[in-house]
Design brief:
Helix content is 58%, strand content 18%. With 549 residues, the protein is of the alpha/beta class. Helix 5 (138-181) packs antiparallel against helix 13 (340-386) and helix 8 (222-237) packs antiparallel against helix 10. It starts with a strand and ends with a helix.
């Protein structure tokens, strides 16, 4: 569960430290006060995208830090995989957002989006209006059903999807082979020519052209290099007037001087080192100059080789590396054509066997789905009856389809909320209030089966009132016995059930800011009275007292 939220410089919040309780945490406030800011901050901390626009004007960064108390989930393997220290029940999740980047940390260790996805699935489920729209789309229904069956069917489905991916790769390979087999004789001959042209060049070094150009530059300037290096050698040590002879005379003088003043010994040693270095340089220059020879034959060989390399580079990509890579690709393509007929037959047999295996797997998954669909439908009906839909019927419809990533099932949720109406697609039947109750029913069932720690409801009570509000309030309160609930509501009856009442207020003085506080006693009564009657007076206070009990 979330025990504490710390927020700094986030949208309209300067700084906030808020303690949450287990059970039911209710968030209320006037329309436009910023109630969803708190929910969005939690969402971002758990990995939702956040741009620089969430940083409060004038600040250099925004910080969101959540303290999580873990008493249900086994996090050891996840933390070990990412090298995170397990410090016990308390986990610190933080998000820092700057104008150029954002960073997430768990217990001080940097984590990536993949970690946050896995971590979120253990600890948090946020139901928003956007998610309600997704729930109405038939394409999402199979995902919901599979989520409910994952403890039993999860491995079956994962294994199927791995095999299906292999199956699609084989189909793509077959298509490529067939395309190659359809090439004309002229195309094949041209392909052979290209392969031979590259292979005959015997390219082994992607830097060969650079090395050859350097060697050519030396060979074309032998006389000049001989003159420069020979003259330099002679100047250093060639005769009695050379640099080294002059330095030896200076050394002799320093040797005498250091005999008179030993402080000069260091200078004498440095001079000896310099003379030794010059001797080495002199020897190197002498050997280099002697090694230089005019080699017209080698020059011609290099020029011919460079001409060939330049031609290949112009034809196959601009660099020797690209020529070598293109040669490998062309050789593979040619091999594929030469053996395509045999490969196509073998591959078609392999694909057919893989398809038969996938169909058996898909049938097994479909059978398991249908069994769980009956259980899930019964549970949803049971929940909806408690939520003031006594004549409701709910079924999960199956249609067989072509093999796909989800198997052979097309799944759609059907509902009838009136006894005289036939079952119809969820999106075409349910009113706003009915949709809210269906979503609440699904969420409560899934949250309990997933063993989620914290469930957030962002205005799940849309479109309901009266007795239905009481039923929703009772259902949410019952659910809060098993997990932490954080809920934005406009319903006084629901707010009265809170274990902690959080009030959001927007103030506009010299600047706009959002203030969030925890209400107790009379403050909580006044907030519930305001929800119930629109204003606080003796009658609305009395009604609020009756609700709180």
């Amino acid at each position: 569960m979330l025990s504490k939220i710390l927020i700094k410089n986030y949208i309209l919040i300067n700084e906030l430290e808020l303690d949450l309780s287990d059970g039911l945490n209710i968030i209320t406030g006037e329309t436009g006060a910023g109630k969803s800011i708190l929910i969005n901050a939690i969402d971002i901390a758990f990995g939702a995208k956040a741009g620089k626009e969430v940083i409060k004007t004038g600040a250099d960064k925004a910080v969101i830090e959540l303290t999580i108390i873990n008493k249900k989930q086994d996090i050891n393997s996840l933390f070990e995989e990412y090298g995170i220290d397990n410090l016990g029940e308390e986990i610190i999740l933080s998000k820092e957002i700057t104008p150029t980047s954002s960073r997430s940390r768990v217990n001080g260790c940097l984590v990536n989006q993949e970690f946050l996805k896995n971590f979120r699935e253990m600890f948090l489920d946020i139901h928003s209006q956007h998610q309600t729209y997704s729930f109405l789309q038939p394409k999402y229904h199979i995902t919901l059903l599979d989520s409910y069956t994952k403890n039993t069917c999860g491995d079956l489905l994962n294994n199927y999807r791995i095999n299906f991916s292999d199956y699609k790769n084989l189909q793509q390979k077959l298509e490529e082979l067939k395309n190659s087999a359809n090439k004309t004789e002229d195309q094949i001959e041209f392909l052979k020519f290209q392969v031979n042209e590259i292979e005959e060049a015997q390219l082994n070094d992607i830097n060969e052209d650079e090395k050859l150009n350097n060697e050519l530059g030396v060979l074309e300037n032998v006389e000049k290099l001989k003159e420069l290096t020979g003259t330099s050698y002679w100047s250093i040590s060639g005769d009695d007037s050379s640099i080294i002879e002059g330095l030896l005379q200076i050394k002799a003088n320093l040797s005498k001087a250091s005999g008179l003043d030993n402080s000069l010994e260091g200078t004498e040693g440095e001079l000896i080192g310099a003379i030794d270095t010059l001797k080495t340089i002199s020897s190197t220059l002498r050997d280099y100059s002697s090694s230089l020879e005019n080699d017209e034959e080698r020059i011609n060989t290099i020029q011919e080789r460079l001409f060939l390399l330049d031609k290949l580079k112009r034809k196959y990509g601009g660099t020797l590396e690209s020529v070598i890579n293109e040669g490998t690709h062309l050789r593979e393509e040619l091999n594929g054509i030469e053996f395509s007929t045999q490969n196509i037959e073998e591959l078609e047999k392999e694909i057919e066997l893989k398809k038969q295996s996938l169909e058996k797997q898909a049938e097994k998954i479909s059978e398991e789905r249908k069994n769980y669909a009956k259980v899930l439908s019964s549970l949803i009906v049971e929940k909806l009856e408690k939520l003031e839909l006594p004549k409701v019927r709910f079924e999960i419809n199956f249609e067989k389809c072509e093999l796909g990533i989800n198997g052979i099932d097309k799944v759609e949720f059907l509902i009838s909320t009136n006894i005289s109406e036939d079952l119809k697609p969820l999106a075409k039947v349910a009113s706003g209030g009915e949709i809210s109750r269906v979503m609440l029913a699904i969420k409560t069932i899934f949250a309990q089966s997933d063993n989620i720690d914290t469930v957030v409801f962002d205005e799940i009570d849309t479109g309901i009132s009266g007795k239905t509000s009481q039923s929703v309030a009772d259902e949410v309160k019952e659910l809060s016995k098993y997990m932490q609930i954080i809920m934005i509501t406009h319903q006084a009856i629901i707010a009265s059930k809170s274990d902690r009442h959080i009030y959001v207020k927007k103030t506009q003085d010299s600047s706009t800011s959002v203030n969030i506080s925890i209400l107790n006693g009379d403050e909580k009564l006044r907030a519930i009275a305001e929800l119930a009657g629109g204003e606080v007076n003796s009658e609305s206070i009395k009604f609020a007292q009756m609700l709180v009990g």
